[in-house]
Amino acid sequence: AIVAHFSGVEQPWVSRGSQMALIPVWFLAVYIQIALLVPVSHWLWRRFGWGSILGLGAAAAAVDWAFFQGSLVAGAWVNYLLVWSCVHQLGYAWRAGHLNGSIKPLALAIFGGGALFCLVHFGPYPVSMVGVPGEKISNSMPPKISLICLGCLQVGLLLSIQDAMGRWLKGLRVWAATVLINTMIMTLFLWHMTVMILSVGAAHLMGDVGLTSTPNSGEWWAQKAIWLWVFTLALFPAVAIFGRFERPRDLPKGCAPLAPWRLVIGALMVCFGLAAVAYGGVADDMPLGLRWTTLVPPFVGAALTRRWHKPTPQGVAP
After folding, report:
1. Taking the C-alpha atoms of 298, 300, 304 and 305 in order, what is their torsion angle to the nearest 10 degrees?
2. What is the pTM of this model?
3. Residue 284 to residue 300: CA distance in whole angstroms
4. Closest CA to 155 of 114, 84, 94, 101
5. Which of 30, 76, 259, 307 is the most core-located residue (most Cβ within 10 A)?
6. Distance (Å, rounded) from C-alpha 110 to C-alpha 153?
7. CA-CA distance, 155 to 62, in Å (whole number)?
8. pLDDT by residue (tens digit) across 212-261?
9. How far is residue 299's CA from residue 247's CA, in Å, rounded to a whole number?
10. Picking from 47-56, 158-167, 200-209, 287-296, which range would have the lowest pLDDT averaged per residue?
11. What is residue 125's three-state secondary structure?
């Protein structure tokens, strides 16, 4: 964004490009939010069971209703909490054994798929489950109950084949490949859009190489396969640089736990900043062409949750 700003690229183009590149960070914001609320969500499951799922879903549906009525537009962002907490509760149901076998998961998938079909074809919800430029209403910004239905469909389908997949994963090569990919899965997810935008930008600077074919033409489909290879190869540097941050590190001996307030405030600041970046990108008319009001909070939040001093040896006064 800084390079584009000083290269004379118009701010709206930089804003749209950065927003598209950083869309995946919404997942990280949700992931941190859900992890932060695990004590609450686990208590809700122990206390209410499936009722916690139904209650969160009903609350999200009420927010959607108010949103479409025009009486709760800004407040609809509360569904970031309600929708994804509802989907997360399905994990407790799975771990409790309520979704074993194939019949129950398939029933969940049928319910989710049927409800999603009705919402899209008979309701005001768009077909695309992700944000599409130009659409007046998005299923994901802010989240809608359509994503709860999609989550039920996906979870149900995956759990219906978990026994078969478990047998397949017993193969050494398959399991090794699965473990390898999972050591870098977050890096791949967070950086794939950035790599795509940078690759397309480079093609534009080289005279629109591979960008001029007519969509759905034979040439377009042939170039699509080439582009997939280009994006894949371009991901390797990102994985090499950032993949190491996914590998957990053991805390040094003598480290005391961080104060809870630092963890909570830091996590909230990171969530806010990442959600804002995913929503509007990083380009602005501020210094260096960056929107510092959304860029600073994630770094401050990360600093709050980091240890900046060496651990005090046990038995030695600080």
Report:
1. 30
2. 0.81
3. 20
4. 94
5. 30
6. 7
7. 23
8. 888 888 888 888 888 999 999 999 998 989 888 877 776 666 677 778 88
9. 20
10. 287-296
11. coil
